[in-house]
Amino acid sequence: MSSLAPHPYPLSARLRDVxxxxxxxxxxxTARADVLSLAGGLPAADLxxxxxxxxxxxxxxxxxxxxxYSETAGVAALREVVAAIESARTGRxxxxxxxxxxxxxxxxxxxxxxxTLDPGDDVVVEDPAYVGALQVFQAAGAVLHxxxxxxxxxxxxxLELLLLGGLRPRLVHTVASFHNPRGVTLSQARRARLCxxxxxxxxxxxxxxxxxxxxxxxxxxxxxxxxxxxxxxLGSASKVLAPALRVGWLVAPPEVSAGVERLKQSTDLxxxxxxQTVAAELLADTTWFxxxxxxxxxxxxxxxxxxxxxxxxAFGDAVTRSTPTGGMFCWVEFRDGRDTGALLPRAxxxxxxxxxxxxxxxxxxxxSALRCSFAGYPEPVLRGAVLRLAAAAT
Amino acid sequence: MSSLAPHPYPLSARLRDVxxxxxxxxxxxTARADVLSLAGGLPAADLxxxxxxxxxxxxxxxxxxxxxYSETAGVAALREVVAAIESARTGRxxxxxxxxxxxxxxxxxxxxxxxTLDPGDDVVVEDPAYVGALQVFQAAGAVLHxxxxxxxxxxxxxLELLLLGGLRPRLVHTVASFHNPRGVTLSQARRARLCxxxxxxxxxxxxxxxxxxxxxxxxxxxxxxxxxxxxxxLGSASKVLAPALRVGWLVAPPEVSAGVERLKQSTDLxxxxxxQTVAAELLADTTWFxxxxxxxxxxxxxxxxxxxxxxxxAFGDAVTRSTPTGGMFCWVEFRDGRDTGALLPRAxxxxxxxxxxxxxxxxxxxxSALRCSFAGYPEPVLRGAVLRLAAAAT
Lengths: 394, 394
What we know:
The structure is a homodimer.
Chain A: H1 22-29, E1 36-37, H2 50-60, H3 76-90, E2 99-102, H4 104-116, E3 122-127, H5 131-139, E4 143-150, E5 153-154, H6 156-164, E6 171-174, H7 188-201, E7 204-208, E8 231-236, E9 248-251, H8 254-268, H9 273-284, H10 286-315, E10 319-321, E11 329-334, H11 340-349, E12 352-353, E13 355-356, E14 369-373, H12 379-393
InterPro entries (chains A, B): Aminotransferase_I/II_large (IPR004839), Class-I_PLP-dep_aminotransf (IPR050859), PyrdxlP-dep_Trfase (IPR015424), PyrdxlP-dep_Trfase_major (IPR015421), PyrdxlP-dep_Trfase_small (IPR015422)
Pfam family, one (chains A, B): Aminotran_1_2
Cofactor (chains A, B): pyridoxal 5'-phosphate
């Protein structure tokens, strides 16, 4: 062996195109103790049922199986209760075998993309979009097409125009209920039309639904999957129980679910029997879970109203904003077209952070918009955060 | 919207080529209460430190952060203790920032393959190989090339011949210590030569090392990464603590680790803060962990010797077998060339299961071989299992 050639380390060409999450980078930058961060998408730490989780964990650990490898598709008890929840929400007869449990709904999205897409395939996303979806589809080599979102959610007319123009996407992704980042909800009429378009043009709707159960005023929106067959529904325990359980799920047509389960085998063998058993106990205890959801909804609604009232007081007609009816996010746009990317460092200097709209952009730049989460702080703190934002913006 | 065309559901062309895990399918078939299964790769349920995990879990849940989202690369306490363990094992100065925690080492392997490979790239694997690696590389679209394994591990001469013949693999994957399924260990001389070849030909060695700490007779083998820079080391808590923690890790050159961390962001956002905090406590409690490892090694060694003695008694010269010096597996080959795939259903009828050699084959068929795990049962049960196998084989 003589002189060594300085070989570069092997790196996939395709992966170079995937953008990092501006939001996760931002969270690092804004993780200063003196900054009130409205930037994150984390559920409220003070509302996570930690004591109940501790009790359930201690109970789960009484069984040897709780620390062993488990089935790739998830522990049976969890698949059963998820099937019951999904049957009730969609009005369909969803069986245990139809559910694949994943490491958060993010893993369901990643596996689904890898199972359904080949490089170069077309995928429709909302514009603005959930950034984690953009990353997943870029990693799968997809060609992204944005469809605008208005106050009734994805503009299905605009989607139909693309389809009439010849676009044949494999997937159409939507955060239909309490949209991240726009804070809006797809109307039921549009949900039905979306399913009809899926039947006609052969795409699969990806109904990414981590927030649906956090509805402020009445029952959760009827899922898209209640309107048609060509839907892969992604659910999550992260926002309604706790992120560290790493429990999400996929309910999809059998061919698709089977592919996801098979790919999950090689991706991580299985999830955690322990945290899945805990999630199963909490979701199956409907008396407790219903009461827990009620208190979550009440708290988040109150926080959302405090934030929007403070925004109205501070900015009045200088901004337009969404009116959250669930979920965790409010979307704000400055009417004077100011650049929220330039505003952010000034805001951090004033002790408050948000995500600039550009982070969620697909085609339209969104440079004068921003996303605020109202989930993480009690009302007085949210009001203080808005005062800081207003000071930074003047 | 008029008559509906019956569109098939979208499925990736590439994923159709990935073989399912014959082993996981087999585990389902052989999960009858009356069958003693030597087929699985599960650690011994009776040796998993469930009480210690329960104590650590209760402690971890005292902190709010234990149920929240966490850093993509893993909680800091776990990365720190893994860096210390890896530094001690490899004799290199590995920092916290060099460690990416994953959902078992399987996820590290999947992310690594996706980050380093483009479809059509060449990858060298051992023959016979760890099936989970074959699945990962197939899913990444790689072209697989098998290199034989003998009693000193991967035949590095055979690898060099392929390289001299023009093959330029991006990755060379090896379970160098206590090989799955062959039960052998790559010699230190071959480890050094493998690193020299990696430097010369520009590939990255994937040192997949879930079993290294379970060395029966003396210290764990010095890792390949002690011999060179072009190594990605994969470690796991599944075999030495518990699978349900879903804790594995990657230590690799910075460019590669950064790619893995970025891809993990979109793959599942992060692992579980709860189980990672538990793993950190157990690994950092070196007094407890060293004693736990000592008892694991003693038990596994005793089980290995019971199995091999029973095999010798029952089969004598009719088989050749590996002599396990660590890990969980023994490899057996019938000298008469009998088909172990055909033997399996008869064995199950006699109340014992194993994995036929063909499941691990890359090029060489291995139809007269089988893999037995000695990890799962105490000695008398292992002796009974071998008696059943002998009865099925006559």
